Predict the 3D structure of the following.
Amino acid sequence: MVEAVRLSEKIAGRMLNWTYSESNRSGDHIWWISDVSKLKSHYPQWEFKYDIQDMLEQIYAKTAERYEVYTEFLTKD
């Protein structure tokens, strides 16, 4: 998680305000990391389409886009 936060800060160009808690939030899914070696043995041409940085950059871009639309809406006459 700390790695993702640091990468997100790099993408955003600023420090993020965050805290860590051992307890799950209501509705959170359980996080797991899968070993994809068996899948790769059956489908050797298969590759991940996105890495972590790609996903975080897309999340940031969409969030920034929504924020811009929202603030434009709020500042309309």
Summary: Residues 1 and 22 are 12 Å apart (CA to CA). The mean pLDDT is 89. The helical segments are 2-12, 37-42, 52-74. Residues 52-74 form the longest helix (23 residues).
